[in-house]
């Protein structure tokens, strides 16, 4: 299998997970209403589970969004700069983003370790389940941003540079406003 | 004051360099950590996760999913058909159809973009064929689309409520009247403009046809009543209301209209999940910066800087509205809410301004940013659908933008337009 | 004594003008006095440093020095702390103080060290009472059919369901709105919270049940604590104990004042008689049996013995 195929497969699997995740969230929140009226009570763990699912949904989805350049940014100024300047800015922002992600990764690592021996209040799952979402997100994003930085430095045509006219760019349709 | 400069300098500087807002927010938090001698990578990770772990924000994916289902399941189309059956025959009628449709659809969806896309896809080809000028029509639909976040349900209200600790139900209820006034403003401007248009007049529909259109869209019309009634009547919380809306939309599309099959469901779920992740990642990153903003006591510093106008609430509101209008021209609404909501809320409360009124005003002026260039996601959506340039869409939208802005400043001068109706619902 | 300069970040959940805030201020001043101004403690009110759980983890990781949290938060790391969620454990403040400051309370605190936390002192959140908007609750039967919001804690759900209420787990962030719109009829919290969260605006009836005693616990980061000298540790400990005495006195005075204020605000207050309370105690007893059976038999026995000694 070549690399592109592998990446697509990974993306497809993450998407499938996200779809399942969201379906479960809707069901859990909805069943809370039903439980209150149908049975006059509720399931104590419902909120805890749905919150855990939600955090994973966010951080998994954010990885995909980074690959598709869907995170909101202001590229107005960049679009007006000469090409060389635009690349220079991109290198700088990528290095800074790598630093931010490194902090996110290191912090998540500590939190995951703490979370191995601390447990959630209702269901008693290890808090590491929650903190690991940050670990996965930060690590994947480091790879994506690092690879793109490399492409920019090597001046490869598939490099994503803010301000470049990009036929592959997904319009920010669907943003919740 | 140093903290304010570090905050603004880092955030604006990084965004100008083309960095995605979420990362700029994280690094702004880091810069403040360094300044306050409070540096620790754990604080970045902890706040990122805490920023995504907010129960009330689970309403975001649920309402987005509900909106996706309504567009895919033919609910939106039927609502537009109803509007066309009712007012399509008047002179310039398709414009009124557009206003009515955006207002009605706004009652089901919390997203201006989804609404605008649904209405524009159906109405712009119709308006073009009937001799309506396309840029003006596109501008009207965009200006109508930004009504959606003002009437419940509303994504920006949910995010604002969470970011500033304001009652989401309160904001939902308080948004209804200003949304109607916004629609009224558009009707007034469109009636003036459409007089000079050479447009084909649609045949008047019989009462039978109207009745059928009404019955056909009845399932859709029940939903807003269900949501607002359920919230006010205490049947569910705003978070639960979103899940109810999603399940309702699913049931109607699957079993009543049967325009969505179970096979399409995963695709819709992925779409909603993707959108959610983009919004929520921003929220997570904003938690890093707002955590440090609180520690640096930034709101108090802003209050000090604005001391001269603190005694004049209306002047203060006017200044804040102008500031938000300026920021809205280059920044999207969600980051604006997340960054400025927590900074400005303590300030306006200190000045004695009602937090719910302020929330409604914040979103009213913030949504204008979605339709005024250069950064204007909603206007971009209609440009894409109408296949016109941003320049011509800008020429099309300005009269509507102007009336919506005038209304905002009318509400600054007379807050009673918002505060009095607020009390009717209690 | 040997004191080096330290900056101590002390985070807490309630507002600066709450009983928690006043005690935090006292603690900061007392610690400065004892250390010749070398320990500069900065209080961060209103969860500015994050939720109780977030602060707990920041302490373990060494990103923050001190905090005060609900003991319920600690159940995730030392599940013995679940004992303070048991119904009708203490009859009055005197019993609570004696047990918490005595060997049982200290033994529980000691278990935190292995998890990276140092327990310093117990403050008081208070005895929890019931409010609702339906009707006055003077006896257990009155609870029948009342939709009562409880914490997301199976013990509370079982307890109130067994008493005939419909226990609805709901997050605190949605509670006020839920009470206002009557999604739920009632809730249970100490009177201080009922007053400060303005529940009196949407709840007419207050029943003094004192069904659970909720303590707070002052914690230090073990990573930070281990770096302190002997004199420094002694001073921090002494200040924590002084703040405890101050806080309990202040909270109790505040509780009495809050109760008067709630009456003035129009709440109708019902005090349950001993016979009805006894009925509730018997009904809620299985919660304790269940907790003991889940590996806490020793702890429950010790605690019961301690309380029995006091009641003699
Ligand atoms: Na809406
Ligand atoms: Na704009």
UniProtKB/TrEMBL annotation, chain A:
GO terms for biological process: C4-dicarboxylate transport. The keyword Cell inner membrane applies. Its main location: membrane. It is a multi-pass membrane protein. GO terms for cellular component: plasma membrane. Keywords: Cell inner membrane, Cell membrane, Membrane, Transmembrane, Transmembrane helix, Transport. One of its GO terms (molecular function) is transmembrane transporter activity. The chain crosses the membrane at residues 16-37, 49-67, 88-109, 129-150. The keyword Cell membrane applies. It is found in: Cell inner membrane. Part of the tripartite ATP-independent periplasmic (TRAP) transport system. Belongs to the TRAP transporter small permease family. The complex comprises the extracytoplasmic solute receptor protein and the two transmembrane proteins. This is TRAP transporter small permease protein. It comes from Ramlibacter agri.
TrEMBL record, chain B:
Residues 8-416 form the TRAP C4-dicarboxylate transport system permease DctM subunit domain. The keyword Ubl conjugation does not apply. The complex comprises the extracytoplasmic solute receptor protein and the two transmembrane proteins. PANTHER family: 2,3-DIKETO-L-GULONATE TRAP TRANSPORTER LARGE PERMEASE PROTEIN YIAN (PTHR33362:SF4), SIALIC ACID TRAP TRANSPORTER PERMEASE PROTEIN SIAT-RELATED (PTHR33362). GO terms for cellular component: plasma membrane. Keywords: Cell inner membrane, Cell membrane, Membrane, Transmembrane, Transmembrane helix, Transport. This is TRAP transporter large permease protein. The chain crosses the membrane at residues 48-67, 79-97, 103-126, 138-162, 168-193, 214-235, 277-296, 316-345, 357-390, 396-414. Part of the tripartite ATP-independent periplasmic (TRAP) transport system. It is found in: Cell inner membrane.
């Amino acid at each position: 299998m070549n690399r592109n195929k592998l990446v697509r497969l990974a993306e497809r699997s993450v998407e499938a997970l996200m779809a399942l995740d969201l379906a479960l969230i809707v069901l859990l929140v909805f069943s809370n209403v039903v439980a209150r009226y149908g049975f006059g009570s509720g399931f104590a763990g419902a909120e805890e589970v749905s919150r855990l699912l939600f955090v994973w949904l966010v951080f998994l989805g954010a990885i995909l969004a980074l690959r598709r350049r869907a995170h909101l940014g202001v590229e107005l100024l960049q679009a007006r700069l000469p090409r060389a300047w635009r690349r220079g800015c991109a290198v700088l922002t990528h290095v800074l983003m790598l630093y931010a992600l490194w902090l996110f990764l290191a912090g998540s690592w500590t939190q995951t370790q703490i979370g191995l021996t601390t447990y959630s209040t209702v269901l008693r799952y290890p808090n590491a389940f929650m903190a690991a979402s940050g670990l996965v997100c930060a690590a994947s994003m480091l790879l994506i941003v690092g690879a793109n930085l490399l492409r920019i430095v090597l001046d490869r045509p598939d490099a994503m540079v803010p301000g470049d006219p990009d036929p592959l760019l997904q319009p920010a349709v669907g943003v919740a406003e | 004051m140093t903290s304010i400069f570090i905050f603004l300098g880092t955030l604006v500087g990084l965004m100008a360099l083309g960095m995605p807002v979420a990362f700029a927010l994280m690094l702004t938090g880091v810069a403040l950590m360094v300044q306050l001698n409070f540096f620790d990578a754990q604080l970045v990770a902890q706040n990122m996760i805490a920023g995504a772990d907010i129960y009330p924000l689970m309403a975001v994916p649920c309402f987005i999913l509900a909106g996706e289902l309504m567009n895919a399941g033919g609910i939106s189309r039927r609502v537009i058909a109803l509007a066309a059956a009712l007012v399509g025959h008047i002179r310039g009628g398709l414009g009124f159809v557009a206003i009515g449709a955006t207002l009605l659809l706004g009652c089901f969806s919390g997203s201006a973009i989804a609404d605008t896309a649904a209405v524009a896809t159906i109405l712009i080809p119709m308006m073009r064929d009937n001799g309506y000028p396309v840029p003006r029509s596109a501008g009207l639909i965009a200006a109508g689309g930004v009504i959606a976040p003002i009437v419940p349900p509303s994504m920006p209200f949910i995010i604002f409520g969470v970011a500033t600790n304001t009652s989401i139900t309160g904001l939902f209820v308080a948004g209804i009247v200003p949304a109607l006034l916004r629609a009224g403003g558009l009707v007034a401007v469109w009636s003036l403009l459409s007089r000079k248009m050479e447009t084909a007049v649609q045949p008047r529909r019989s009462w039978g046809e109207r009745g059928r259109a009404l019955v056909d869209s009845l399932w859709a019309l029940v939903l807003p009543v269900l949501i607002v009634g359920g919230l006010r009547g205490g049947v569910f919380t705003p978070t639960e209301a979103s899940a109810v809306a999603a399940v309702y939309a699913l049931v109607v599309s699957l079993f009543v209209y049967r325009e969505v099959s179970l096979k399409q469901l995963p695709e819709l779920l992925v779409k909603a999940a993707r959108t959610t992740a983009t919004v929520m990642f921003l929220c997570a990153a904003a938690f890093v910066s707002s955590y440090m903003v609180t520690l640096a006591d930034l709101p108090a510093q802003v209050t000090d800087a604005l001391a001269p106008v603190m005694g004049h609430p209306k002047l203060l509101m006017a200044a804040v509205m102008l500031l938000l209008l300026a920021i809205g021209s280059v920044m999207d609404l969600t980051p604006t809410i997340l960054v400025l909501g927590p900074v400005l809320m303590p300030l306006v409360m200190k000045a004695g301004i009602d937090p719910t009124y302020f929330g409604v005003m914040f979103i009213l002026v913030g949504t204008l940013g979605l339709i005024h260039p250069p950064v204007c996601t909603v206007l971009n959506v209609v440009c894409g659908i109408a296949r016109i340039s941003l320049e011509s869409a800008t020429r099309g939208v300005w009269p509507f933008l102007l009336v919506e802005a005038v209304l905002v400043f009318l509400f600054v001068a007379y807050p009673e337009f918002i505060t009095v109706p607020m009390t009717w619902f209690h | 004594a040997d004191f080096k300069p330290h900056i101590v970040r002390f985070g807490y959940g309630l507002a600066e003008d709450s009983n928690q805030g006043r005690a935090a201020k006292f603690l900061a001043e007392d610690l400065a006095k004892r250390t010749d101004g070398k320990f500069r403690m900065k209080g961060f009110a209103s969860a500015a440093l994050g939720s109780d759980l977030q602060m707990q983890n920041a302490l373990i990781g060494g990103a923050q020095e001190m905090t005060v949290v609900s003991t319920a938060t600690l159940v995730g790391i030392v599940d013995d702390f679940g004992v303070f969620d048991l119904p009708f454990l203490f009859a009055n403040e005197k019993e609570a103080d004696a047990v918490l400051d005595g060997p049982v309370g200290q033994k529980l605190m000691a278990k935190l060290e292995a998890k990276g936390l140092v327990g310093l002192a117990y403050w008081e959140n208070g005895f929890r009472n019931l409010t609702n908007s339906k009707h006055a609750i003077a006896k257990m039967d009155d609870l029948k059919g009342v939709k009562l919001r409880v914490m997301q804690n199976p013990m509370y759900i079982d307890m109130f369901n067994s008493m005939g209420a419909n226990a609805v787990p709901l997050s605190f962030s949605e509670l006020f709105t839920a009470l206002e719109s009557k999604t739920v009829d009632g809730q249970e919290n100490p009177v201080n919270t009922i007053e400060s969260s303005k529940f009196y605006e949407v709840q007419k009836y207050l029943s003094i049940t004192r069904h659970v005693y909720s303590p707070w616990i002052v914690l230090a980061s073990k990573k930070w604590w281990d770096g302190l000298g002997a004199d420094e540790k002694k001073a921090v400990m002494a200040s924590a104990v002084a703040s405890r005495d101050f806080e309990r006195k202040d909270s109790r005075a505040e509780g009495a004042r809050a109760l008067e204020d709630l009456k003035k605000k129009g709440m109708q207050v019902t005090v349950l008689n001993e016979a009805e309370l006894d009925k509730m105690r018997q009904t809620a007893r299985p919660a304790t049996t269940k907790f003991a059976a889940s590996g806490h038999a020793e702890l429950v026995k010790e605690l019961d013995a301690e309380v029995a000694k006091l009641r003699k």
